[in-house]
C-alpha cells in the first residue's frame, strides 16, 4: 500500500483520474485539493494546476492530453498588486486562508503577511478528552484503550461542518491534539476575538500550548488552580486584550494574592472589561477598576447603610463605566436599610429589590443601581446591577 502514491505520481493521467474522481464527488475545490494531497502527496501537483483541471473537468471537458501551452499565460495570485492581494485575503475566512497558505511557499508568504483572525476559539480539556471549536467547527480527540479517536468536520464550510469524519490513531489523545493545535498556533499574526479556555482537569502537557504573546481581544479562563489561570492570563498581549473573565470559584484564594497576581498586571490595567468570579474584595479595592467600562466581581459583606452610600459614590466617579454586577454576602442582613438610606421604596416579589438612580453632579452622568436579595441552597447574597442610563 505504501507504493500507491508513488505509482500515481508516475503518470500524469493517473493524477488527472484522481482529480476527475474529486469532481464527480461534487466537493468544494479546497476540500477536494486536501483529499487529493492526502492521497497522493503534497508534492504531486501545485494548487493552480489542480484548479485548472478541476474546473476543466467540471465543465465536461475530459481531454486528458489537452495542450495548455496554447492558452495565454494567466495572471496568478502572486502577480497581483499587494493591495489587491490584501483585499482578497480580507474576504477569506481563516480556513480558506489556511488552505491557501498550504499551496506553496510563495502564497504562504503572502498570506502570512496579513493577520489571520478567528472570531471564536474554544478549548476544553476533559478527563481523557480534548475538544476545540473554531468559528463553529468542532474537533474532538478522545482516549481509547490502544490510542485515540479523532473526530473532525468532513467539510470545513460552515453549512456542512456538522458532517463528521472519525479516525483512529495509535497516539495518545493529548499528542494527537497537539499535533493539530501546534500547527494552528504557529500561524504568523494569528489573532482571536474571543478565546474560551476550560482546563479544569490537571493537564500539564498543555502548559506551553499558547504562544507568547497571544493576540486575543478577550479571554475567559477556567483552570485547575490559581497559578495556571494567571499563567494563561499573562500570555495575553497587554493593550490588545480588551476584556477577560477569570473563574476562581471553589478555590481558596486570598484577596491579597488576587491583587498582587491579577490586579497589578498590565493585562488588568489596560483592559476595558473584567469579570472576576470567586474571590471577595474589599469595598476600597473597587477603585482599582476605575478605568473599566464593564465590571463583574465579588466583595465582602456590605452590612451598613453608609457602606452602600460609599459604594454608590465610588462607582459614580468611574468615567468609563457603562455597566457592572457586584455580588456580596448578606450574612442574613436585609437590603431594607439600604433602601431607606437611598430614599427608595422596596418592591416585594420573588426577590426583594429596589432601584436607585443617581446623578453625579461632577460628571453629569446618571447611573442606575438595582439592588436585590438572593437566597439559594448555598448561601444568602446580594446582587447590585449597575447601568449607565445617561
Automatic annotation (TrEMBL):
PANTHER family: DUF38 DOMAIN-CONTAINING PROTEIN-RELATED, UNCHARACTERIZED C.ELEGANS PROTEIN. CDD domains: F-box_CeFBXA-like (cd22150). This is F-box domain-containing protein. InterPro entries: DUF38/FTH_CAE_spp, F-box_dom, FB224, Mos1_HTH. It comes from Caenorhabditis nigoni. GO terms for biological process: innate immune response. Residues 74-121 form the F-box domain. Pfam families: FTH (PF01827), HTH_48 (PF17906).
Amino acid at each position: 500500500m505504501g507504493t500507491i502514491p508513488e505509482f500515481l505520481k508516475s503518470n500524469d493521467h493517473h493524477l488527472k483520474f484522481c482529480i476527475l474522481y474529486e469532481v464527480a464527488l461534487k466537493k468544494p475545490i479546497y476540500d477536494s485539493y486536501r483529499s487529493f494531497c492526502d492521497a497522493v502527496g503534497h508534492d504531486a501537483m501545485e494548487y493552480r494546476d489542480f484548479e485548472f483541471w478541476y474546473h476543466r473537468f467540471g465543465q465536461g471537458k475530459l481531454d486528458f492530453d489537452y495542450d495548455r501551452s496554447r492558452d495565454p499565460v494567466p495572471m496568478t495570485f502572486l502577480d497581483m498588486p499587494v493591495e489587491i492581494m490584501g483585499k482578497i485575503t480580507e474576504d477569506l475566512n481563516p480556513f480558506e486562508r489556511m488552505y491557501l497558505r498550504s499551496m506553496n511557499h510563495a502564497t504562504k508568504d503572502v498570506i502570512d503577511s496579513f493577520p489571520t483572525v478567528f472570531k471564536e476559539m474554544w478549548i476544553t480539556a476533559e478527563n481523557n478528552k480534548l475538544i476545540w471549536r473554531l468559528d463553529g467547527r468542532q474537533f474532538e480527540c478522545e482516549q481509547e484503550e490502544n490510542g485515540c479517536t479523532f473526530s473532525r468536520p468532513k467539510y470545513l464550510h460552515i453549512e456542512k461542518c456538522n458532517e463528521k469524519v472519525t479516525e483512529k490513531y495509535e497516539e495518545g489523545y493529548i499528542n494527537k491534539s497537539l499535533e493539530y493545535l501546534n500547527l494552528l498556533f504557529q500561524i504568523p499574526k494569528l489573532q482571536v476575538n474571543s478565546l474560551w479556555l476550560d482546563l479544569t482537569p490537571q493537564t500539564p502537557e498543555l502548559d506551553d500550548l499558547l504562544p507568547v504573546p497571544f493576540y486575543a481581544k478577550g479571554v475567559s479562563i477556567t483552570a485547575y488552580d490559581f497559578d495556571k489561570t494567571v499563567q494563561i492570563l499573562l500570555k495575553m498581549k497587554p493593550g490588545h486584550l480588551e476584556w477577560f473573565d477569570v473563574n476562581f470559584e471553589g478555590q481558596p484564594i486570598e484577596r491579597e494574592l488576587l491583587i498582587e497576581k491579577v490586579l497589578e498586571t498590565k493585562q488588568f490595567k489596560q483592559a476595558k472589561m473584567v469579570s472576576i468570579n470567586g474571590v471577595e474584595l474589599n469595598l476600597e479595592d473597587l477603585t482599582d477598576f476605575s478605568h473599566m467600562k464593564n465590571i463583574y466581581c465579588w466583595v465582602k459583606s456590605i452590612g451598613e447603610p453608609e457602606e452602600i452610600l460609599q459604594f454608590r459614590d465610588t462607582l459614580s466617579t468611574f468615567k468609563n463605566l457603562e455597566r457592572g454586577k457586584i455580588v456580596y454576602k448578606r450574612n442574613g442582613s436585609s437590603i431594607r436599610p439600604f433602601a431607606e438610606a437611598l430614599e427608595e421604596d422596596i418592591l416585594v416579589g420573588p426577590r426583594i429589590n429596589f432601584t436607585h438612580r443617581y446623578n453625579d453632579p461632577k460628571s453629569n452622568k446618571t447611573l442606575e443601581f438595582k439592588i436585590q436579595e438572593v437566597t439559594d441552597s448555598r448561601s444568602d447574597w446580594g446582587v447590585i446591577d449597575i447601568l449607565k442610563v445617561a
